[in-house]
Each structure stands twice: as C-alpha cells, then as structure tokens.
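Give me the fold.
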Amino acid sequence: MYELGTTRHPVDLLYCPDLGGSRLRRIQILPSVQDDWRAWLPDEKAEIFDAYSKQLEDSYAMFSVALNEALELRRVGLLQKSQQAVGVIPALGTRLAHQLGAVLRALGGHCKHYGTTPNAAPLNASNFRGSREQRSARMSDLLNRVLLTQRSQFLDKISTLQGMVVDLGKELMLSVENISAFTSEEFKAEWLAVDSAHYDLNTCLRETIILLKSSLLVTPGDQLGAFQRAIEVQLRADHQPSFNRQSVIHRRRIPSIAGQ
C-alpha cells in the first residue's frame, strides 16, 4: 500500500522576489504534502497538472497491462507465449521511466532557477520492493533529517527518484533480454525482478505526481509558461539509458541469493 508522507516544517507564506526587480509576491504554502494533495488548483494550474499527470498515467497503464498479460500467460503455463508477450515490456517501461525522469528534472530545475520551495515528504522504504530502491529510500529519509532547508529536502528527493527510475529502466531491459532468450523457468529471478520493477515504477509515478502538484501550488502564475516549457524540453530530450551489462546482472543476483 502506497503511503503519503508528511513534511516536518509547516510554512504559512512565502515572499518570492521577482527576478531582476524588487517587487514581492505573496504565495501561500500549505503545512504538509497531504494538504497540498487536497488543495484546489486554479484553472490554469489544474490544466497543467491534469495534462502531465494523465500523460504519465497513460504510459503506466500501457506498461502495466502488457506486463500483467505476460505474467498471467506464465502463470497458466503458456511459457512460450509469455516470452513473446514480455518482449514489448522494455520499450513501454523505459518510455515511462524517461517521462518520469523528464518531469523530475524539470521540477528540480525550476526549483533551483526560481527559488520556489515546494513541500516534500521523506520517501518511505516500505513503499518499494527492490532492495536497492529500499536502501535509496532509507538514505533519503536519513538525509531528510539532517538537511537544514526545505528546498534541500525537495531537491534531494528529486535526485533520489531520478536515480531510481534510471536504474529501474535498466533492470527491465536486462531482465527481459534474459527472459526472451532462455527457458522461462530458468530465469525465475528475472520474472521476479520485472514484477518488482513494475511495483517500484508505480511508486515513483505516485511520488512524481505528488511533487508535480506541490510544485504547481507554489509556482506564481507568471512562471507557469516557463514551468511548462521546462517539462516539454525534458520530455523531448533523448535520455536513453546506458549501462554496463555485467554490473547490473551482478547487482540483480544479490537479492535472489539473499532470499534463498
């Protein structure tokens, strides 16, 4: 079950200076991420949020449906068909990972450039299945306790999630490559790795959508154009994952051995 966290430092108001001028703008900051999620967005911000969250949800739905079909074929013993069905998973999974990474890079870049301070709750390791992702979440939670500013906490969470989606995309490609090439039962660990990556990409998706709304809440209206352009630029950019096959395979074997 995905659980929504809380922030530690409630802030009522943020006075944000315009770039190149002395005029101050008043922006309300809500006390917690839960309050952000329940908050009403003005029409222009709601349109932006709906557009990008729907794009991410649609990509996840395509990926999830395809994977569930392959898993069901394997469960009922149709191994050859399951191997064929899983062949579309890398393209769909890496597409989702790319889109998540693009939105996260844009949110982090906007925060750095304009000095906005969105709410960000610590990552919860129990919301992840992969041992690597759980370790990253625990480390992020630990850093969250010592980072002095809310902006630092937000940027650290962005960075952690970016690293996760890149690693999960690599994991999917290598696992499916092995599943497609050999006997299905011979690579049971790979099927488990694919299912785990699916679960953790879903968690990263939920975290990204929450961060998107929290960011929009503190973005002044005259910055919304730049906000959208930053996301569009990142979505169009080509960030194809590169990886060392042996290092990722070795890393993937460790959880299966430890679980025996």
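The first strand starts at residue 13 and ends at 17.
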